[in-house]
Amino acid sequence: MKRVFSGVQPTGNLHLGNYLGAIKNWVAMQREYDCIYCIVDLHAITVPQDPAELTANTREVTAGLLAAGLDPKTCIIFNQSSVTGHAELAWILNCFTPLGWLNRMTQFKEKAGKRRENALLGLYAYPVLMAADILLYHASAVPVGEDQKQHLELSRDIAGAFNRAYDVAFFPLPEPMIFGAATRVMSLRDGRAKMSKSDGSDYARINLTDDADTLALKIKRAKTDSEPGLSFDPERRPEAANLLSIYAALAGEPVERIVAEHTGMGFAAFKGKLADLATATLGPIAQRMRELQADPGYIDGVLADGAERARAIADANLAEVRRIMGLLDA
Ligand code: AMP
Ligand code: TRP
């Protein structure tokens, strides 16, 4: 079975964009592939973190993954820092990564901004750690969003550089799995901005923990335009298009079908239908998430079990890396 690896940062406020854009796809893959899902806390510390919040966010993301339907017996779910092999392999791979490759990374350029001299080495080396995450498990398929494609290409280059240096075919070259375009969820207050955890208004986003009343209220207050009747025109009517896309994604139907069914319907009536659908699909997830968050002992147990299983694979591959490189196991 093909091995899949993916990572998610432990940031709080899991929202509908995270669910429809990432988590739902992970759930769909778990029976078809050998899946390893990692809460990447070592990536999170490339920007300042409050210790208590980092712990809480690691548990929140884990709860979100479980509540959405990931089965911790079928797949491996763990937090990155619990398996020390990630940091170890990252160091080794640093020694096969030319600066020129890292200098091309657009995410670093964006995050470092104009203050390049003050940017931290960890932020610069972030993509090498990501390569280590994937290669440590010999994963061949990596579900990621568009924005991570460049990092994945770098992972392939680094794997190739290692293989060439020792004339081995040890690391498989990982392939990205990019999911369909219908997965960009926009803000409920502005159809041209991405739904985001950092939006100042909570009304801009549907949190995975929102209860039914909050959900309905947020959908009711979602921004609309003044044209009568719904139509799907993302350029001219981004808010209407967003609500229709969210409906389609929640219903698991092609957006064309949802549009055909609702063209001409008024916003108020459609919002009512959307609120019902959102409550029916997200309600059980929110309920489960609240239950899980009330039981951090259970969450920590899932992560500990996942880390143990991840470690077994990681240790075997690292031992082989050491042998190939001639690093003496004293
Ligand atoms: P972030 O919280 O931005 O680190 O994103 C975590 C995951 O959720 C990534 O795979 C993103 O691609 C996905 N994601 C975040 N926001 C959205 C959104 N508004 N629409 C679709 N996917 C999103
Ligand atoms: N950098 C990814 C993101 O911000 C998260 C990530 C870390 C990842 N390691 C990974 C994704 C390995 C896929 C594979 O979304």
Account of the 3D structure:
The chain has 330 residues and is mainly alpha-helical. 54% of the residues lie in helices and 7% in strands. The strands form two sheets. Strands 1-2-3 form a three-stranded parallel beta sheet. A two-stranded parallel sheet has the order 4-5. Helix 8 links the parallel strand 4 and strand 5. Helix 9 packs antiparallel against helix 12, helix 10 packs across helix 11 and helix 10 crosses helix 12. It is globular, with a radius of gyration of 21 Å. It starts with a strand and ends in a 5-residue tail after the last helix. The model has no long low-confidence stretch (mean pLDDT 95).
The helix fraction, in percent, is 40-55%
End-to-end Cα distance? 35 Å
Spatial order of the strands in the main sheet? 1-2-3
Helix and strand run: EHEHHEHHHHEHEHHHHH
Radius of gyration: 21 Å
Q: Characterize the overall form.
A: globular
Structural class: mainly alpha
Q: What bound compounds does this protein have?
A: adenosine monophosphate, tryptophan
What is the β-strand count? Answer: 5
Mean pLDDT: 95
Low-pLDDT residue spans: none
Instruction: Provide a count of the helices.
Output: 13
Strand content: 5-15%
Instruction: Give the biggest beta sheet.
Output: 3 strands, parallel
